[in-house]
Amino acid sequence: MESQVTDELKEFITSMFLFGDEARLPEETDSLLETGVLDSTGVLELIEFLEERYGFSVDDTETVPDNLGSIAGLTQYVLRKTGETAGAA
Amino acid sequence: MNDAFIAQLVAEWNAARTRGGDEALEAVCTAIFLEDVFDLTLTDEQLQPAFLTETSALQTALQLQGRD
Amino acid sequence: MCGICGIVATGDQPAVSDVTAMIGAISHRGPDGSGYLRDHHAVLGHARLAIIDTAGGAQPLCNEDGTVWVVFNGEIFNYVELRHQLRDRGHVFRTASDTEVIVHAWEEWGEGAFTRFNGQWAIALWERNNQRLILSRDRVGICPLYYRHTSGHLAFASEIKALFAEAASPRPSFDPAGLDQVLTYWSAIAPRTVFSGIEQLPPGNYAVFDRDGLRCEPYWQIEFPDRGREANQDLESNAAELRNKLIQATRLRFERSDVSVGAYLSGGLDSSVTTAAIRNFTDSPLATFSIRFADAEFDEGTFQHRMAAALGTEHHEIVISASDVAGVFPEVVRHAESPLLRAAPAPLFLLAGLARESGFKVVVTGEGADEVLGGYDIYREARVRAFIAKDPDSPVRARAVELLYPWMARNPGKAPAFARDFFSQDLDPADPAMSHRPRWNSTSALKSMLSSAIRDQARDSTDGAAVSLPSGSDAWDPLSRAQWLEMTTLLAGYILASQGDRMILGNSVEGRFPFLDPDVVDFANNLPARHKLFGLDEKFILKYAFADLVPEEIRNRHKQPYRAPDAASFFSAEPPGWVAEALAPEQVMACGVFDARQVAGLTAKARLRRGRFGNTDNMRMLAVLSTQLLYQQFIAPSQIAVERPADPLLVIDLVDSEREQDVPASYVRS
């Protein structure tokens, strides 16, 4: 489950923000902001994607770098919000 | 930096600013003006409505700061 | 205004056919007539838009004895006063035109002439005795001037397309370094352009070309006083003086014309000031012109009507839809001669068309106010960032971000945590360009879409910083530094060019800019910063000085930057055919500027979102579309159709007349 979420996030980021240029996809723990992948509009598009794809609502207080700032952070955030914990099937 | 100039600038500011609304934000706005015009740096304690929206207290503090 | 062009060759006789082709290429700048001068080593050309001395002011024209000739695009507004001075010094005038003042001023003062001109210009002077060409451009870059220089040969023109019309000019190609500059500063920075081998004369400069080669010098520089040393600190007297100077500048531009002058009215403060000045301080009826948008998000009609009604003007408006923008965009790019990061020039192109159709050849507009009087958001943002930088961890200081954009639907305040991070980027208070670094960095994000070939070539040819603040600027107020950067980058390269001259003259109309009057600019530059940006209150002194003439609801509007429908225009249900062709992979690869795969990815996203993009994606799509169009229009064709110069054509052939009569110039009209 975790790896599926990670893959889906990577695919979304690659197609929507990198326009297919996989070579520029950062490491899972890199900051998406500092690597220039995400800007302020990108955050909003990311939130839209999360809400549509995973069916939960992103609260204003949750829009923090810990949750949304890296692929690893995003994965854990999605798993928490969808009720799945790391390691579960 | 003389007293008359400080008084003039505080008067310009008071005449120009719009009141009403978030007090804390208003204080920030005043601080931006003062730091820019007088080329100084206020502390977080000084960036408070009580300090910044009371004209004579402000004027006195600026004059004191200028004399340091 | 008009268009100018010409060729000087120290070793040959330049061909008349080349120069007539060049004139033809810029005939939209001068549909009222043409002229050329042929000397042994120079041919000068002119496309005329008749505004002052419509009967007598045909060009090229010369001094008393035919030793100095000029072709000129622009206006010298103080020509009446200069003519008095020059007559007093013994000069003899044959016409009533402002053009003739230029040759006599050059005779009298040499390069000292340019600082005496109050106006806008691109000038080419030919000194027969010295076999020398002098080029000059106004202080801030209102009028364009490009040239191609090889050893012993110089071709110059108001627009790049005219330089391509010269038979000997090499096949056009993009300059990677110029493209790199557009994707940083929004335009190439003079002397660069986006085309290899084509340069532009920087604003405030003149150039001399003769047997010794080409040299270029500034005759004027943007200057600011040291912080705290501004001569006059008194708000009342500064406001009064600004008011007088602006009214004078507006009157000069409105009254000195033999044809009707109209005024643009955007609904914002600046054009409200200029129109109010015209209405209250001149006697003429006033026609105003405005852009309306079918989309309420962009429309400013309420404010435009308010001002037009208050002044009692004959008001004209054009309603623009997204499909209008998309339909006219290829023509807009052909006139701009640069990649564009916004579609904003398109409605301005259509507005100039409205003015023309309504019978107006001249319009007064509010451009320049934001630059010289501290109107832009970039100045406010810089001040907030400097405030936060003093203690980036202070939660009190962080709230300053909320002061910036209370009215925007999508603002950083909605995602507060990220807002601080975004805002804190590039927060180096020691960076003299701190005000502009975020814009340049966020624009540079576009470079990841460049093809690797272009990126490599751009890197290899970058010759140091294209933009660097002058020495002594560290003593200026930070606002002054930001203004200097804005005037030398966005104003000259984009606002006055792609949104200004090219769009207006593309419709055979002349624009005039009171806020860029040299007396206004010099005065504004010497104001204390707080009179321009009072805390976060922009153009404070302008609002103060004209409080009696501009309604409060317009004065107190939050700054609404001029915006037009952008990428969404090109991805509606029925986009125009050229869009798909421009984005076709084989076209993108043939052009070679952008990476075809990423363009395909961006296009897929655009189609999915119907072009509803954030700022950066918007710039990406506009950059790709406009660059592809430039490629199709200027680079791909093996030849470009040659147009004829507009009739009547004035021919002055000094070579033939010497041969025939053994005396200097005689006029031949054909």
Note down, in words, how this protein is organized.
The complex is a heterotrimer of chains A (89), B (68) and C (670). With 89 residues, chain A is mostly helical. Chain A is 51% helix and 0% strand. Chain A has one domain (2-22, 30-81): ACP-like (Non-ribosomal Peptide Synthetase Peptidyl Carrier Protein, Chain A). The N and C termini of chain A lie close together (6 Å). Chain B has one domain. The longest helix of chain B has 16 residues, at 23-38. The radius of gyration of chain B is 11 Å and the shape is globular. In chain C, the strands form three sheets. Chain C has an eight-stranded mixed sheet. A six-stranded antiparallel sheet of chain C has the order 4-5-6-7-11-12, with helices on one face. In chain C, strands 15-14-13-16-17 form a five-stranded parallel sheet, sandwiched between helices. Chain C has four domains: 2-221 and 640-669, 4-Layer Sandwich (Glutamine Phosphoribosylpyrophosphate, subunit 1, domain 1); 235-369 and 483-555, 3-Layer(aba) Sandwich (Rossmann fold); 377-447 and 461-469, no CATH class; 567-635, no CATH class. Mean pLDDT of chain C is 92; it is low at 407-413 and 663-670. In chain C, helix 10 packs parallel to helix 18 (497-505). Chain C is of the alpha+beta class and 670 residues long. Chains in contact: A-C, B-C. Chain A binds chain C through residues 15-16, 18-21, 24, 33, 36, 39-45, 60, 63-65, 68, and chain C through 410, 412, 414-419, 421-422, 425, 442, 445, 448-449, 595, 597-602, 604-605, 613-617.
Radius of gyration of chain B: 11 Å
Question: What is the name of the CATH topology of the largest domain in chain C?
Answer: Glutamine Phosphoribosylpyrophosphate, subunit 1, domain 1
The CATH level-2 architecture of the largest domain in chain C is identified as 4-Layer Sandwich
Number of strand elements of chain C: 19
Compute the number of structural domains of chain B. Answer: 1
Superfamily at the CATH H level of the largest domain in chain C? Aminohydrolase, N-terminal nucleophile (Ntn) domain
Computed over alpha carbons, the radius of gyration of chain C is 25 Å
Q: What does the overall shape of chain B look like?
A: globular
Number of discrete domains of chain C: 4
| Share of helix of chain C, binned | 40-55%
Overall structural class of chain B, as computed from helix and strand content, comes to: mainly alpha
CATH class of the largest domain in chain C: Alpha Beta
Q: How would you describe the shape of chain C? A: globular
Quickly give the structural class of chain C.
Answer: alpha+beta
* Total count of helical runs of at least 4 residues of chain C: 27
Strand content of chain C: 15-25%
Number of strands of chain B: 0
- In whole angstroms, the N-to-C terminal distance of chain B is 12 Å
